[in-house]
Amino acid sequence: MRKVLITILFIISIAISGEKKLTLGDCIQIALEKNPEMSIANKQLKAVQEGVKASYGGTQNTGGILPYISTNYSVRQDILGPTDMPRVTGQQVIGGDTTTYYYNANINLHQNIYDGGKWWNSIKLAKNTYKGAVVDRDLTRQLMIVNVTEKFYDVLKAQELLKVYSKSLENSQEQLKKTRELHRIGQVAKKDLFKAQVREGNDRLNVIQQKSMLKSAISDLSIAMGLAPNEHLEVYEKTYQKPESIDPGTAERRAFENNLELNSLTAQKQSAFLNYKIAKGDRYPTLSSSFSYSRGGSELSRTYSELDKWWNTSLNLNLSYPLFDGFRRKTNIQQKLLNYKIYNDQIEKKKMDIQNLVQNLLLALETYKEMIEINELNIQSAQEDLRLAQEMYRLNSATLLEVLDAQVELTRARGNLVTTKYDAKIAEVQLALVMGIL
Hints:
The chain has a four-stranded antiparallel β-sheet with strand order 2-5-7-8, with no helix packed on it. Helix 8 runs antiparallel to helix 9 (400-435). It has helices spanning 2-17, 24-34, 36-56, 118-184, 190-224, 248-258, 260-280, 328-394, 400-435, and strands at residues 21-22, 68-80, 84-88, 91-94, 98-114, 234-235, 286-297, 311-320. The chain is of the alpha+beta class. It contains nine helices and eight strands. 65% of the residues lie in helices and 15% in strands. The protein has a single domain, classed as Outer membrane efflux proteins (OEP), CATH 1.20.1600.10.
């Protein structure tokens, strides 16, 4: 409740201020409260929870651990048409219609005593289904967190790339200004002016395209958070944390222990086993008892007065066993057994998929870490190359093309670093999802 209140106050405050400067934690918290997927998952979990209560109850047909009690009240009207009456003074007399009423009130109790273990296995099945539903709800939550995290870093990446391209545009505009002035006084050829104009135009186009990509990334993040796609958001990260190294053996062990998709399959396997045991219960006889109490008569008062009269009770004990059912029992048991065994193969396949995914993500993270270090060196090298090219161009020892190429390489190095940094963060959260440690 406290988290909900904090989230509501936070949303109100940013609505009043007109700005939404959000950290990753803010985005995730809003998504947990606003995204319809979580609301749906929570309602589905409550519905399954009600099924646990229902498993204890029984019906008159299926039985259960709790008795089935029913009551009813009925009124019957009988009308007898005209009939011959005894002759009086030698003449035949025809009697009129005769109407009679019968009132009845009763209460019935049916109790399942033994049904081959189906009722207690049904309770176990309902509890295991709820356990699986909790896992599915948690999986929905984690998938939503991963989705928001990916969209968050996509926005940060788009923002940083826009800064890179904007900086490149500033440099090319400055270079165009210098080249235009040098051309005016006759120190450079017109082809240099054209090259500077082309470079400035390309940089301007990159900025325009990147602004569009940033807008699209913000829209995707808004939808992932459960907000309107046209919501104005501004996200930031205080400091960038480089991905940490994880021991492959530890990562694999945690994934096998905590992966929610694997845990969901395990719960489904247990449910399939319980369905198999329920089906096996049809091999055994069923034993049940019933008791009924009724009272009534031709007068309404007999249903509620003089309780020591006009009553009737019955007590039954029923033992039944189907001798032949067209092989339905045998077929049903075999189907349930095969469904149960299928999950063994599915779980083994899932484990192999998890192992492969963990290895690939760990390899990707290590690659990204090395790429970050290399790109940081590339930026330093590209900055030095640009400085030297500009100095040599000033001394007429280099062409404008060399200066422009150096600017392009610096922009590319900066863009590669931004892309690598945030792709690494996305891979990191994907690994956390596989390991079940979000």
